[in-house]
Task: inverse folding
């Protein structure tokens, strides 16, 4: 056996990229590479990239500048760009970023060893073929950067919703579901290794469908199967598209204590006019009816969302619709973004990115302020309640405290006492900030 080479991976973007990097790690390990956390000793650096907004791409371009000096020190260093930015820009990225040797799109990771082997002095390698079938179902990801307690499992790839602003259908290709048995086996194995929380990942998990010997397994069924592995294994999922979050799914979440009571339901905008331009395929009223169903069936369920400020032609009235919807839902948590026009999307082709930057910033700030208030109100309601918390980490602020989340996905900090990572602890909430619940061990 030769001495294994060192691979350094840096990951940007969504949780799916985190999970993809673990797949890349596994593929490379099979080919005599070990993961290193020290980029200075790396033989190969892979940057797994994101294209969702322009600033995501700019950040990665800046990072590449920093890698210049490493390449000067080590002429043999190989730099590969993986993921959505590789897929979006293809050869153009090789021309623009001279230090890059390899470009590999999200469905090309099995070919990474061949791409590496094909690099001859000065030559570059590229594979950006998208696939109709690839789900990496048989690959056992390596959890090289994990707390050993919480893990992600990709259950599907791609997206065909074509929201007008979004690059994902172009960078990730057609929607496809991974075979259910491989998902359940991966979850079982993680549980046996000590993991206590699995998040099932896909751009739109509600449309998961696995056909197997005449049986079909939809998302609600898959979720149930994973929950049945063991009551000590918590299950989460992301993301749900509002257009097809079914009652069946909501009832399944309600039925099992270990399916977390937290639903991420991206709304994007509260204005029907904007929702239509975004091609989200639902109305404000429909969205509200789904939130009503969640609150009726699971009263303790937390609801979080994504909101885009300043989409094409958005006016003050649209913005007020978004703010009033936030107030109506009373979100527990929100990811908030300024609209960023992405080349070649339907919005870039059909509409003008005409909301001035300063207006976008002002509206985003209003949304942030609104959510700050709503998060605080939501957390204040939890003071005095007792929650079961899964210990995930030592608190960042104090070694005497542990941090974990309750079923509602809220971060809870409490005294360490005799507890350790992976334990479930009953915590009574004593106080809070807008971001964190602070508690004591419930006797
Ligand atoms: N599949 C998920 C979202 C994936 S992208 C869903 O449909 O809900 C995560 C979030 O990034 C989106 O929900 C959206 O709020 C935001 N986003 C996507 N494209 C964007 C763009 N061009 N500008 C700003 N935000 C964007
Ligand atoms: Fe993008 Fe829409 Fe697909 Fe989400 S559902 S990934 S926002 S196209
Ligand atoms: Fe970014 Fe691609 Fe995820 S664009 S958000 S890394 S699917």
Result:
């Amino acid at each position: 056996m030769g001495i294994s080479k060192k691979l350094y991976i840096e990951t940007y973007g969504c949780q799916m990229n985190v999970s993809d990097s673990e797949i890349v790690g596994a593929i490379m390990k099979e080919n005599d590479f070990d993961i290193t956390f020290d980029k200075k000793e790396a033989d190969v650096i892979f940057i797994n990239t994101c294209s969702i907004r322009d600033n995501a791409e700019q950040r990665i371009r800046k990072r590449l500048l920093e890698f210049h000096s490493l390449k000067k020190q080590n002429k043999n260093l190989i730099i590969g760009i993986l993921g959505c930015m590789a897929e979006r820009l293809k050869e153009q990225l090789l021309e623009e970023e001279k230090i890059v040797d390899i470009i590999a799109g999200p469905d090309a990771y099995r070919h990474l060893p061949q791409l590496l082997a094909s690099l001859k002095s000065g030559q570059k390698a590229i594979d950006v073929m998208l696939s109709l079938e690839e789900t990496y179902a048989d690959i056992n990801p390596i959890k090289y950067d994990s707390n050993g307690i919480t893990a992600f499992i990709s259950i599907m790839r791609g997206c065909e919703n074509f929201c007008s602003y979004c690059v994902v259908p172009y960078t990730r290709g057609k929607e496809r579901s991974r075979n259910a048995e491989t998902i359940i086996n991966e979850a079982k194995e993680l549980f046996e290794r000590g993991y206590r929380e699995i998040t099932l990942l896909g751009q739109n998990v509600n449309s998961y469908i696995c056909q197997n010997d005449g049986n079909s397994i939809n998302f609600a069924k898959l979720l149930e199967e994973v929950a049945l592995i063991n009551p000590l294994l918590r299950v989460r999922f992301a993301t749900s598209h509002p257009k097809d979050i079914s009652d069946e799914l909501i009832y399944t979440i309600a039925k099992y204590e270990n399916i977390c009571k937290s639903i991420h339901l991206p709304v994007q905008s509260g204005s029907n006019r904007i929702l239509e331009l975004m091609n989200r395929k639902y109305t404000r009223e429909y969205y509200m009816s789904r939130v009503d169903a969640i609150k009726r069936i699971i009263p303790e369920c937390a609801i979080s969302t994504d909101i885009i400020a300043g989409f094409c032609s958005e006016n003050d009235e649209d913005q007020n619709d978004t703010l009033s919807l936030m107030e109506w839902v009373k979100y527990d948590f929100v990811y908030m973004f300024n609209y960023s026009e992405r080349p070649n999307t339907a919005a870039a082709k059909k509409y003008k990115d005409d909301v001035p930057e300063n207006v976008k910033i002002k509206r985003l700030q209003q949304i942030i302020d609104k959510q700050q208030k709503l998060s605080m109100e939501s957390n204040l309601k939890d003071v005095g309640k007792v929650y079961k918390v899964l210990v995930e980490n030592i608190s960042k602020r104090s070694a005497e405290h542990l941090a974990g989340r309750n079923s509602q996905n809220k971060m809870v900090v409490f005294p360490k006492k005799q507890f350790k990572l992976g334990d479930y602890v009953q915590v009574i909430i004593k106080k809070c900030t807008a971001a964190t619940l602070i508690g004591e061990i419930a006797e």
User: Anything to note?
Assistant: DSSP finds 14 helices and 21 strands in the chain. The mean pLDDT is 96. The pocket of FE3-S4 cluster (ligand 3) is lined by residues 13-14, 16-17, 50-52, 83-84, 167-168, 171-172 (CB under 6 Å).
